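Can't paste images in this forum, so I'm doing it all in text. The chain is below; anyone willing to post the predicted structure tokens underneath?
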Amino acid sequence: MILPIYTLGQPVLRKEAEEITAEYPELSALIENMFETMDKADGVGLAAPQIGLSIRLFVISLDCLSEEYPEYKDFRRVFINPKILELGGEEVSMEEGCLSLPGIHETVKRMNKVRVHYFDEQFQEHDEWIEGFFARVVQHEYDHLDGKVFVDRISALRRQLIKGKINALLKGKAHCEYKVKTVR
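Text version of the structure:
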């Protein structure tokens, strides 16, 4: 089922999300709906707060990059109750966008390695180092669980330059090809 994606201005996007247990109601269906919603919107990651749920869960699918990066063929991952334990490598600048901020793209600096502890959809525990673009997506989605969005990581000057776009979103004006829930 395709779910509406909450846009900037929805209070859930600014709340710190809560951990869940394996008994969370209809978790498998929720995860499948999140993947379906993300795929329909042409995203590579989707966090639960982006669909209105303040829980520590996000999904990532990098299959759309598999032509350029064959290692991402059929790549889908679920992160439940993740904790970033360490950042490493080097700081890399790259343009980011977000399904909750349609039409806004800005260059964001993030580390290119991250050590993360999380549970998968079977509640199997993982502790691993993740690198490259995958590490960037993990950090981006993780921010959503802490009530942050990528524009919080750009300079005050850049934020000022895109203030009109941000204000439009805060007023419920979102222009995109997927189903959204805006502020009314």
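Residues 5-181 form a domain with the Peptide Deformylase fold (CATH 3.90.45.10). The CA atoms of residues 167 and 173 lie 9 Å apart.
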